[in-house]
């Protein structure tokens, strides 16, 4: 005769979290920059085991816990496929001259003093157009990181600018998955949701741009023109540089705008990059393949899809800019995401996460404190479940009834889900978004955290609005939603 599992106590819920925090702190302290390459994964698995032991103590069966882990990992499979496709895309776009051409033109057009703000703005426009922060970072973002290296600018600040712009556009684009998911969970209408988000999103972005402009004020003369000239010469000497090599990028943007799913769109972009390399980069392909035959060239492109590209020019900076990519480069991130999702799945499946949140509802007496509790829960879910979709769906389900009971319009909830869930996801190193940005930009979220100004300002501004009562919409019977 089976019995229902016991409800977890608050102590039960806190123990795995405390273990995870302690292990992650020890990981960073002991392994420093290498903490994301194995130590963090072990910390997440040990914390997941601790949560599972507590669940077993409360009467859960291992089979049910295991099913929860499998379901949790399955949620991330789409992201993992995209991640592998992005690795292939970066490799072939390097070989095709697409990224080198973007770097070449960027070094000529972007001045050091305006670079951080311009990077943020460029990424915002692209992400708003295509609705994908991931695609923006993997294409324009990779090129901008290369330009920053050429201009001898801070890579963490550049990464922060890219993340800020990419998530601003992603958050407001009607093509974005999270922008559609949040109102669907909360019960609001898409364009009402977007209009309501403008009140917190636009001021936050303007403040971020101002901060990036301030950071650029003192670096007008920092760039070494001789060094930039050497990099430009190295680029043109190694690759055929031309505007038409940006065609794979243009095709990918069109596919994204036309709402093709991310995985096939990115993989088509990767294959097009391989074709472009065969057609336009013949001398380089023959040199890297060690043979000028078609078979050797095809073998090189195949290898680039999974192993990336390594270029030796004699210029160390240029070699770093032009080498990388490949699906294999993403495998560590895949490992990190799977371990993080395992921990989050155990916490969610066994009721430990819900127990952590129960106290928040009791403490949230006013509309402002309820919105703050929602944003805080989204941030906590990003930390504990390691996935931005979970950080939107779970708090949305938990707080929806309370928002309705207090007469608050659904757009209040949907905006809070984005302000807390979507925006903070790339700031967590073991979150799917943070791990992805690390793999693509090659800068850890721990390093760019303080410079992702938009992602830091937006949740704070949302909480300030909530407590001041700014743009808190009430339900007016019989209307169930309101336009801001």
From TrEMBL:
<dbReference type="InterPro" id="IPR004770">
    <property type="entry name" value="Na/H_antiport_NhaC"/>
</dbReference>
<feature type="transmembrane region" description="Helical">
    <location>
        <begin position="262"/>
        <end position="280"/>
    </location>
</feature>
<keyword id="KW-0812">Transmembrane</keyword>
<dbReference type="InterPro" id="IPR018461">
    <property type="entry name" value="Na/H_Antiport_NhaC-like_C"/>
</dbReference>
<dbReference type="InterPro" id="IPR052180">
    <property type="entry name" value="NhaC_Na-H+_Antiporter"/>
</dbReference>
<dbReference type="GO" id="GO:0005886">
    <property type="term" value="C:plasma membrane"/>
</dbReference>
<feature type="transmembrane region" description="Helical">
    <location>
        <begin position="12"/>
        <end position="31"/>
    </location>
</feature>
<feature type="transmembrane region" description="Helical">
    <location>
        <begin position="142"/>
        <end position="168"/>
    </location>
</feature>
<keyword id="KW-1003">Cell membrane</keyword>
<feature type="transmembrane region" description="Helical">
    <location>
        <begin position="448"/>
        <end position="468"/>
    </location>
</feature>
<feature type="transmembrane region" description="Helical">
    <location>
        <begin position="102"/>
        <end position="130"/>
    </location>
</feature>
<dbReference type="Pfam" id="PF03553">
    <property type="entry name" value="Na_H_antiporter"/>
</dbReference>
<feature type="domain" description="Na+/H+ antiporter NhaC-like C-terminal">
    <location>
        <begin position="165"/>
        <end position="470"/>
    </location>
</feature>
<keyword id="KW-0472">Membrane</keyword>
<keyword id="KW-0813">Transport</keyword>
<feature type="transmembrane region" description="Helical">
    <location>
        <begin position="77"/>
        <end position="96"/>
    </location>
</feature>
<feature type="transmembrane region" description="Helical">
    <location>
        <begin position="37"/>
        <end position="56"/>
    </location>
</feature>
<feature type="transmembrane region" description="Helical">
    <location>
        <begin position="359"/>
        <end position="384"/>
    </location>
</feature>
<feature type="transmembrane region" description="Helical">
    <location>
        <begin position="329"/>
        <end position="347"/>
    </location>
</feature>
<comment type="similarity">
    <text>Belongs to the NhaC Na(+)/H(+) (TC 2.A.35) antiporter family.</text>
</comment>
<protein>
    <submittedName>
        <fullName>Na+/H+ antiporter NhaC</fullName>
    </submittedName>
</protein>
<keyword id="KW-0050">Antiport</keyword>
<dbReference type="GO" id="GO:0015297">
    <property type="term" value="F:antiporter activity"/>
</dbReference>
<feature type="transmembrane region" description="Helical">
    <location>
        <begin position="196"/>
        <end position="219"/>
    </location>
</feature>
<keyword id="KW-1133">Transmembrane helix</keyword>
